[in-house]
Design brief:
By secondary structure, the protein is an alpha/beta fold. The protein contains ten helices and 17 strands.
Length: about 350
C-alpha cells in the first residue's frame, strides 16, 4: 500500500514528507488509517540518533490510534471500521516463555518495535506512526473501548502503559504510598493512574511551581526535592517511587525516601545515571529497578481501566507540519503534558489499495 509520512533521512536533517510502501496484508494482518499519533520524548531521541542505533530513513511514532480499513483472510479480532490502537511494538516471537505468559515486551528474541525494529519475515526496518497508514499483526492492534476519546487516547499507548505496568507489577492499590519524580508526559499519567488505583500520591519536584498542577491531576501532596528539611522528614515514607526523568540525573537523594523493601522504578532515562550511593539500599533493604512498557494483555487492561475510570492524558493537538516546533518545546518541557498529531492534517495518497 502506497502511503505518506514524515521521515528523517539522517540525524542532521529535519522531518519531511516521505512517500513509501506499507507491506501487503498477510493473512493475520490488519491495515489501519491512522487518526492520531502521540509525540513521545523517545521520538525526539530517535530522529536525532541520541542512542546511536537509529536506522534511516526513520519515521517515529508509537502512540497510535486509528480505524481498520483492511483485514487479512484469517483475522478474527477486528473488522472493518473498528477503532484500534498500536503502541511501541508490532510483533514478537510468540514462542518463548515471556511471550507465552503475555509479556511480549520482554520477548527473548526481542520484540519488533513499531519503529526501528525489523520485520520478522522480510527483515525490512519498521516505520512508525507519523504516517497516514499502518499494517500490523492483528494481535498487536488493541481494541479502543467505547467512550474513550480517540483524540486524547494515543499517549496511553506509551506514556500510559509505561507507568501503569510498574504500578501493577508492584501491586499498587488502596493504602499504597507512591511517589512520582517529574511531572511531564509520563509523570502526569503516573499520578492519574496511581490516584485512580486508590494510592496516596506525592509528586516530587525541585520547586513548588507545579504544586497546583500536581494536586489538580490527583496527587495528595508535592514534595520539594531541593528542600533538605522536607526530604529528611519524608524519609521511609514511600512503598514505590516512579522516576520519570528522561535525562541523566542522580537518584541518591530519593533512595532514603523509600520504606523497608520499597522500590524506585526507573521508567524515564534510557542510558547512564549519575553514580549513586548504595548506603540507603543496603541499610534499608531498598531496591532500584527498571520497567519498560507492558504486554499486549496488560495494555488492553490499561485501556479498559482508563475507559472505566474516565482517565485520559492532558494533550495539546498539533498538525503534522508543526512537529519541529513541538520538538523544540518538548526539549524545554514546554507542554502540558503530551502533544498529539491530528493525522487529518497529513494529506492522504490517492492510491491506498492493498
Amino acid at each position: 500500500m502506497r502511503t505518506i509520512g514524515y521521515a528523517v533521512q539522517s540525524a542532521e536533517t529535519p522531518l519531511a514528507p516521505f512517500s513509501f510502501e506499507r507491506r501487503q496484508l498477510r493473512s493475520n494482518d490488519v491495515a489501519m488509517e491512522i487518526l492520531y499519533c502521540g509525540v513521545c520524548h523517545s521520538d525526539l531521541h530517535w530522529v536525532r540518533n541520541d542512542w546511536g542505533w537509529t536506522v534511516f530513513p526513520a519515521i517515529p511514532g508509537h502512540e497510535i490510534v486509528g480505524r481498520v480499513i483492511g483485514v487479512g483472510s484469517d483475522v478474527t479480532r477486528h473488522k472493518l471500521g473498528d477503532h484500534v490502537a498500536v503502541g511501541c511494538m508490532v510483533d514478537s516471537c510468540q514462542q518463548c516463555d515471556q511471550c507465552k505468559k503475555g509479556e511480549e515486551q520482554l520477548c527473548r528474541e526481542g520484540n519488533t518495535g513499531t519503529y526501528g525494529g525489523f520485520d520478522r519475515f522480510t527483515k525490512e526496518h519498521t516505520l512508525g506512526g507519523y504516517s497516514k497508514h499502518l499494517v500490523v499483526r492483528e494481535d498487536f492492534a488493541l481494541r479502543v473501548p467505547d467512550g474513550l476519546d480517540l483524540a486524547k487516547a494515543a499517549p496511553l499507548l506509551c506514556a500510559g502503559i509505561t507507568t501503569y505496568s510498574p504500578l501493577r507489577t508492584w501491586n499498587v492499590g488502596p493504602g499504597s504510598r507512591v511517589g512520582v519524580i517529574g511531572l511531564g508526559g509520563l509523570g502526569h499519567m503516573a499520578v492519574k493512574l496511581a490516584a485512580a488505583m486508590g494510592a496516596d500520591v506525592t509528586v516530587m519536584s525541585r520547586t513548588t511551581d507545579k504544586e497546583a498542577d500536581a494536586l489538580a491531576l490527583g496527587a495528595d501532596a508535592l514534595l520539594v526535592s531541593s528542600d533538605p528539611a522536607a526530604m529528611e522528614k519524608a524519609a521511609n515514607s514511600f512503598d514505590l517511587i516512579i522516576d520519570t526523568v528522561p535525562v541523566k540525573h542522580d537518584i541518591s537523594p530519593y533512595l532514603p525516601l523509600l520504606d523497608v523493601d520499597g522500590t524506585l522504578v526507573i521508567v524515564g532515562q534510557v542510558g547512564p545515571l549519575a553514580e549513586p550511593t548504595t548506603v540507603p539500599l543496603l541499610l534499608g533493604r531498598r531496591r532500584v529497578a527498571g520497567s519498560p512498557i507492558g504486554g499486549i494483555a496488560e495494555t488492553q487492561e490499561l485501556l479498559n481501566f482508563c475507559a472505566k475510570k474516565n482517565i485520559l492524558p492532558d494533550v495539546e493537538m498539533i498538525r503534522m507540519d508543526e512537529i519541529h516546533h513541538a520538538f523544540e518545546r518538548l526539549e524545554k518541557a514546554d507542554v502540558r503534558y503530551r502533544f498529539v498529531i491530528d493525522m487529518a492534517s497529513l494529506s492522504a495518497p490517492t492510491d491506498t489499495s492493498f
